[in-house]
Amino acid sequence: MQKCGTPEHDALRRDLTINSLFYNINTKSIEDWTNRGVEDLKCGKIATPLPPKDTFMEDLLRVLRAIRFGARFGFILDEQLKEAATCDEVKAALSAKISRE
Description:
This protein is mainly alpha-helical. It has helices at residues 7-12, 37-43, 52-58, 61-73, 79-85, 88-97, and strands spanning 21-24, 29-32, 45-46, 76-77.
């Protein structure tokens, strides 16, 4: 039997804070379990709920999604996110995993 997580756990596992918002159909309200998603959305900032390097190493495609979201919506990338995306460990992992296609 699979154990269900909490909404907070689910939100923290998301790739970006703006993707970690929930809509509660019962209260018709937005729930921000990271306490950063709504503010990042209002400010136009791309950030990760957890430390960016950890988030990227868990799923390297998150680097590309963060850049794509920023470019698509004209949002700025968080400084820690940019540092993590350009660190040698993440770049090497990206080169090994992601094809040139």
